[in-house]
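yo

u said u wanted the structure for the complex thing, so here. seqs first:
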Amino acid sequence: MFDQFATAEPDEAMKLAIRRVEETTAAGKGSYLEGLELNEVIVNMGPQHPSTHGVLRLVVTLDGELVRDVIPVIGYLHRCKEKLAEKRTYFQYIPIVDRTEYVASMNCEWAYVLAVEKLAGIVPTRRAEFIRVITGELMRIASHQVAVGTFVADLSPLGTAMVFYCFNDRERILDLLEEVSGARMMFNYFRFGGVRYDLPDGWVEKCRTLMKDMPKLIDQYESLVNDNAIFLQRTMGKGVITQQDVADYGITGPNARASGIDLDLRRSRPYSVYPELDFKVCTGEHGDVLDRYQVRIDEMRESVKIVEQCLDMLPRGPVQIGSLRPPYVIQPPPGSCYVGQENPRGEYGVYVVSDGSRYPYRLKYRDPCFCNLQIFGKLLPGNKIADAVAISGSIDLVLGGIDR
Amino acid sequence: MVPDRLKVQYPKLSDFSQPNVITTTADLVFAWARSRSVFPFTYGLACCAIEMLSSGFARFDVARYGMEVFRPTPRQCDLMIVAGTLNEKMAPILKRLYDQMSEPKWVVSMGACATSGGPFYDGYNVVNGVDKVVPVDVYIPGCPPRPEALFQGLLELQKVIRQYKFVPELPELAKPAERS
Amino acid sequence: MAREVGRVEITMEALFARLAADFGDGLGDLRVQEPDTLVAAVERGALHALAERLKAHELGYETLNFIAAVDHVRHLEAVYHLYSWHTNTWLELHVEVPRGKAEIDTVTDVWPAADWHEREAWDMMGIRFKGHPDLRRILLKDDFIGHPLRKDYVDRAENHPHV
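structre next:
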């Protein structure tokens, strides 16, 4: 029964890895250990792996423990979202946009809704804008908790308490979002011109209580790992993304900010009510794994400040334009439009091409993790396998967005 | 090398031709042990995987059902929870991993995508349901199913596990007078 | 030492005038859209040279955001979305590609980010990029037949065995 696995044909990615090994051997490059012959092993960190955060396959060429070459293979979660856009109306498509970056679904809906609103010329109500910022920033905190928690869980498999603390506090945020929208993860909450439901009674007080507790909880996360000598040794100086890499590969989000680049779409191309809010753009210095982790922790604190400001500034009013007949069927004029917004992982945007009918003509996602993943071929080689796992955890990938 | 005459011959439960007090007691003991110590296989593909993770952590604790040992290798698992959409590129890998699990094994399909394709049912690349590739014991609907829904599915699975018998009752072997 | 964006303060009209003056021959039909995007149409053959000049320019467009492939029924189109650090503006280049011979020169030597975007455009729409180091399918399985995002794509039994 098990012989069938041994005789499986290598597929395109494995053939490419084998070709590269043969080229290296032919070119006479030896092993990194003096006096030994080259003996490279090609290993599949396959689509099912505890540390790859989803169905990402890395075809890794190893020389002992050292990674020589990495070929990422994606597409194991390709769900044909861009083709489905042509069969669903603009309104029917909102739940599907949710499922792209499923850890930060509010922000994904926001990008799609922004693009279609710009194309159709719909202006949302002011109260809805503030509610969008509040829920978007709460989702950013929850997403960073998942990112940081699973990153630390990768370093030592579920051995630290950090991931338990992060996920437990994330549940409190998801409780708030569930009261507002009705779902824990796939909210289907944003609409063209506003949001679906108004905030229930008592929600603002609960949110304020949680935002008062949040800085203490974030301090707790830092106190768990920041002074740990092994954590620092495994993360300092590893996986450095230079500023030239950021420009070349189009890396955005905390990965770019950790390299010292002041690029935050909430500041540089502001949307919604961000121009009226006061927050700091968190940057790092060296661009290594530790900086990326630290930037995410700092961003959680900034998001708490933003939510508190918005709760104070929340105006009264309707949450959707045309309160009796919301725009369920919209037919934007022919044209194309791209809006990028600041997802917890980077610049997430939707490029909408419309031909005047009820269905989108073409919908293209600009996904941050797809662009961030390209740097793996350059970043991982030269590190040990354990460092490779730490680096890939710090880049924070969500396969739903990469594969769409 | 132990010669055959010195090897101890243990009686096997399946040597019995009909269920009796020994086999039914063994059934009870094994069912009790197996159903309360299932090792799930982390086969989280998509969004449902995050709900599966949430159900393993502090608030919704899957350890109270004995299933907190999520092993990443199929060789050490009894239960494969397929959480997420299956597509044509992933289907051969699912089949391969299912084959690599050793008997007895069960499959739970979690979420609408694994049950029937979900919101992506008309995609050109999406397999409409995991049961086109592997046999499924329990289906859990939802998109994504709440952790409580996952637990209800796992409790149903415990009922399925408890139905395993060493010597099932076969009507052909009953005495002629009892045959109707 | 943080690197900032938008170091050069320039209005959209001034930028429009500057680009029209420097690249007038390459950027056809240049116009301003939305608050900070310029849109232009580019000839297929002139794309690579124009890309090098755009990147090396003083107000250079150093980053490629994405490449979108669109199927207008009579022709295909590749949309390149570029970002300039100095002026904090976007530039959208529309390149028309005939359906029968869908080929463009690659820009991976100008912007390394184009690698996977071009592979995706090949995979989904069937636009071949000449000179690409490794043009193979990225999202679909290797033996998939056809290019799904084309408007005339029909679901095939070979592509979809487990229906």
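Helices of chain C lie at 12-23, 47-56, 114-125. Chain C has a mean pLDDT of 85.
cya
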